[in-house]
Amino acid sequence: MNPAMNIALKELYTSVKSKRFIVMMAFYFLIFGIAVYSTKDYLIQMGVPAVENNELFMWGVSGYTYMTPFAMLFMINMTIITIIGAVLGAALGADAINREVETGTAKVLLGHPIYRDEVINGKFLGMGILIVIVNLLVYAMIIAVMLIFGIPLDGDSLIRGFLGVAVTILYTLTFLSIGVFFSTLFKKPETSMLAAVGLTIFMTVFYGIVASIIASKLVGPAPSWGTSSYEAWQEARKLWMARLHLINPAHHYVQMVSYIFGGDRFVNYYIPLGDSFTYGFNNLAILLVMLFLPFAFAYVRFMTRDIS
Amino acid sequence: MSQAAIRIENLTKLYGRVRAVDSLSLEVETGEVFGFLGPNGAGKTTTILSMLGLVIPDKGRVELLGYDITREPIRIKERVGYLPENATVYGELTAWKNLEFFANFYRMSNTEKERRITELLKMVGLWEVRYRKAKTFSKGMKQRLLIAQTFINDPELLILDEPTSGLDPEGTRLVKDLIRKAKSEGKTVFFSSHILSEVEELSDRVGIIVAGKLRASGTIREIKRKFMELEGYEIVIETKEPLPEIEHTEAIRIKKLAPNRTVIFTRSDIREELSRYLTSRGITILSLEIREPSLEDIFLKTIYRREEE
Question: CB–CB of A111 and B80 under 8 A?
């Protein structure tokens, strides 16, 4: 067996059985269940879908969405996944390397014919597979919920949902990558776990508030409401918010999903998928950079460090 | 002449300003059991970790089984069994799964894998608990499982770092038997320890490392001889009649234990001259022998000398 695959399968096996994974999944299902329960009547009686203005201030995203029942359920799920998915990714990776070094299993492992890069690749691959499985499961669950409640499904939404899942996987992997990087940065697994989960919660929950405060400070006091200078002030503030959100993976993820389910008010339908990806190209590119950059740093650190 | 299984040249490893290993060179012949002795913090583990490429040395090179560890690590590790110190197995996996995981790194058929795992689990006495998660094992059981993984690839060269640490007497005997068995099969064993009796009992040759430097190496006999040449001899004489006054230029100190029993501390072996001298004086020699230093004496003296330096 390929050594990296051997490690990946071991990681997958142990991660699925880990307490942190079980707790996170239970927490996710609980919140998703509550969300479905509280919106099911609205979804059932929704009627003809319409293009709606969707404001997600927390992640600095706003735009028009073609709100089919599926799109709505997916968006509800997205708001949960933006936080829980990120925490899951970070938590899975945050002690991937330093735990092995601390317990001494890294020495045992590297005493066998395996290159160091195969160890880090194998670990990432194993946890990555788990993230893919979880996301596909969630996608299947959304469809199942709709079928159970007899909510109408349409093919276009399903395809867009599938693309949304692909972006969700990319987003979760980004936090996995950050977690793995932290596991090579800190000696103690507890420290790296705390730092990675702390940073993730900050970026997905509080960063929007912090960015809003900083942007307001940067553009100065607001002029009187309704004046042209107020509009200019608001534009400047928006620009700063957008700049500040550049480093936030949650912003790029939510923005990308918004584009995928983006609506055209004139035709009252989805914008073409090609347009969605054209608008979201930067977000997708930044997410990819955010995925590979921490992993590259982790890679270099692990390859050059002493295992003692 | 047999090929060296281990060749270390001028190995140096620094941790900040501390020289954990300092210009260490040594060779271990194929089929030899080499005991690597040293007090805690002497550099034994760092040397071993450098041998396997787990620690990147600042200077020097290591060759195992004729290959350079930096260039051919996989080729080497396919033929080496390594037992680290202060390590553990994967707690979430069962004993069987642990060994299966490590076996997957080698080119083995499934049948061969199963046969090997069964053999090893029986060998280390964990067969009955093979489906139990390793995290439920005692420290000794985990160490046994670690020992088993060392042998998963039927290695030609065994590198064991404190192999008996954490083991009960039965486990210790198992390790000793495994080292003896490996030697009888022509395998090379390099093991570190600070248990002198263990090293003396098992090793063909010994190396003593203190503060990163190799202070002595060779067979135990050679080390003892060198030590005596350096530190002097202790000649014990027992005679039938009381001993007369002995004067010799090589004698450093004479200690009378009884009227007919004396210890002479000398710079060289003067037994022949002593024997001739006493016989010419009509004294019957009951015994005349050199009291050899124990490995413990040598070890402690070597450390003590380092502290004096």
Answer: yes
